[in-house]
Amino acid sequence: MRYQMANARQLTARASALETSGMLQDDALHYSYWMGEWATVLGLLAQEKRISGYVTRVHGYDLYDERHTLGYQPYRAIQKQGLKKIYPISELGKGYIASRMTGVPLETHYLGTVDHGPGPLPTDETLRVVSVARLVPLKRIREMITILALCQRPVHWTHIGGGPEEELLRTETNGLGKHIQVSIRGDMDHDAIMHEYSQKPYHLLISLSSSEGLPVSMMEAMSFGIPVLSTDVGGVHEMVTESTGVLVDRELDHAQIASILDDWILTGLARPAFREGVRQAWKERFSADRNYPRFIEDILSLEWS
Prior knowledge:
This protein is 37% helix and 15% strand. With 305 residues, it is an alpha/beta fold. The protein has 2 domains: 2-112 and 288-300, Glycogen Phosphorylase B (Rossmann fold, 3-Layer(aba) Sandwich); 127-285, Glycogen Phosphorylase B (Rossmann fold). The longest helix has 20 residues, at 2-21. The radius of gyration is 22 Å and the shape is elongated. The two termini are 37 Å apart.
């Protein structure tokens, strides 16, 4: 309760600061990328008739009750004030928010990423795997140690992303066999990751997360033609299909995943034609050039008076 009261005061202070800043204009369109604190601020301003309304996207941590530290998403009643439309980033998210907030128009609009061209094809017999995630328990990256220990074929695993579990992960990799190579890259900026994909060949991106919305990291990998192996969580199944990769159960079966990795190069998943199909699927559903003009057009079509 003390946390909620302190947070409420902070949000009210933000709304007051915006109101006195001169930034609010009668003809402005107000938009929040997350349906979290700033959506609450915009709801407070709409409640006070300081803005005519706003729209918001909603993703994962700002959508699902279990993702919030309180066990539920606070301030939904305030966020509903002046809310013209909610744009979930997945169809699954649309169904979830529809069951919890009525009376507000909903429309799924996928995020999108920029086209950097196809990535290079792996040509050797070592399976080259990449993961991109914060090193926190939710992402379950440390489970890779158990999976790799079960792999029979040579594997080179690169992890991009830092976090509280980084040092522990580095220590745990020491016990892996000589046929397993690991590169923990830590935090990298976005341009560096895109350069990595454009220059270094990867057979697949792997995600073992216990919860997701619709990860941009997967879209980015797919734009280079890199297939995805992921847990079937959140809206991931809207992106990872038989045409773009492999889904595994949220309750990890380490031996099953190790077997999939051992067989990856022997299956169609490693063929150039499959990778071209991955990239085509990205172009058709998750390209920024396709998705964002449509998103902006929809916002501009709303009644804002």
